Amino acid sequence: MKNVTHSFVFLAHWPFAGSFGLNTDILATNLINLTVVVGVLIFFGKGVCASCILKDLLDNRKQRILSTIRNSEELRRGTLEQLEKARIRLQKVELEADEYRMNGYSEIEREKENLINATSISLEQLEKSKNETLYFEKQRAMNQVRQRVFQQAVQGALGTLNSCLNTELHFRTIRANIGILGAIEWKR
């Protein structure tokens, strides 16, 4: 309190002329600033009370703060709703992904089984075809061997006949065959 009264005394002893200085006393300078502000308010306000202006300013500030809070609450509610919708959508997408994954695995297993079955059938058909081909090749080889044996036998018999036959034997055989054919014709 002594400093406050000292400030008033200091103002009373302030030299008016000839000097200009910096006042470092905080209380004294605050008091001067307040008196200047109050004086300006009274001069320009002309009957408007400072507390009314201050009250209006505070009410405006309060209304802006309240509207900001309301807007923030509405934005928060909207954001929470969007978050909940996003969560629901995410769960739905995860379920669909799981379903696609399971269907994909099932489809892969079906395709695998179909491929195994088709391959098994193809292998069986190839085995059957191979066996048939082997059988036919075996038959053909046997027929070729038979023909060669027959040809060789015929050639051997012809060679033996040609070497053993003389013309007289040959004529006798021809006459005997003609006689047999003639007897067959007479019986008819």
Automatic annotation (TrEMBL):
<keyword id="KW-1133">Transmembrane helix</keyword>
<dbReference type="Pfam" id="PF00430">
    <property type="entry name" value="ATP-synt_B"/>
</dbReference>
<keyword id="KW-0406">Ion transport</keyword>
<comment type="function">
    <text>F(1)F(0) ATP synthase produces ATP from ADP in the presence of a proton or sodium gradient. F-type ATPases consist of two structural domains, F(1) containing the extramembraneous catalytic core and F(0) containing the membrane proton channel, linked together by a central stalk and a peripheral stalk. During catalysis, ATP synthesis in the catalytic domain of F(1) is coupled via a rotary mechanism of the central stalk subunits to proton translocation.</text>
</comment>
<keyword id="KW-0066">ATP synthesis</keyword>
<dbReference type="InterPro" id="IPR002146">
    <property type="entry name" value="ATP_synth_b/b'su_bac/chlpt"/>
</dbReference>
<keyword id="KW-0813">Transport</keyword>
<dbReference type="GO" id="GO:0009535">
    <property type="term" value="C:chloroplast thylakoid membrane"/>
</dbReference>
<keyword id="KW-0793">Thylakoid</keyword>
<keyword id="KW-0375">Hydrogen ion transport</keyword>
<comment type="similarity">
    <text>Belongs to the ATPase B chain family.</text>
</comment>
<keyword id="KW-0150">Chloroplast</keyword>
<feature type="transmembrane region" description="Helical">
    <location>
        <begin position="31"/>
        <end position="54"/>
    </location>
</feature>
<comment type="subunit">
    <text>F-type ATPases have 2 components, F(1) - the catalytic core - and F(0) - the membrane proton channel. F(1) has five subunits: alpha(3), beta(3), gamma(1), delta(1), epsilon(1). F(0) has four main subunits: a(1), b(1), b'(1) and c(10-14). The alpha and beta chains form an alternating ring which encloses part of the gamma chain. F(1) is attached to F(0) by a central stalk formed by the gamma and epsilon chains, while a peripheral stalk is formed by the delta, b and b' chains.</text>
</comment>
<protein>
    <recommendedName>
        <fullName>ATP synthase subunit b, chloroplastic</fullName>
    </recommendedName>
</protein>
<keyword id="KW-0934">Plastid</keyword>
<keyword id="KW-0812">Transmembrane</keyword>
<keyword id="KW-0472">Membrane</keyword>
<dbReference type="GO" id="GO:0045259">
    <property type="term" value="C:proton-transporting ATP synthase complex"/>
</dbReference>
<dbReference type="GO" id="GO:0046933">
    <property type="term" value="F:proton-transporting ATP synthase activity, rotational mechanism"/>
</dbReference>
<keyword id="KW-0138">CF(0)</keyword>
<comment type="function">
    <text>Component of the F(0) channel, it forms part of the peripheral stalk, linking F(1) to F(0).</text>
</comment>
<feature type="coiled-coil region">
    <location>
        <begin position="76"/>
        <end position="103"/>
    </location>
</feature>
<keyword id="KW-0175">Coiled coil</keyword>
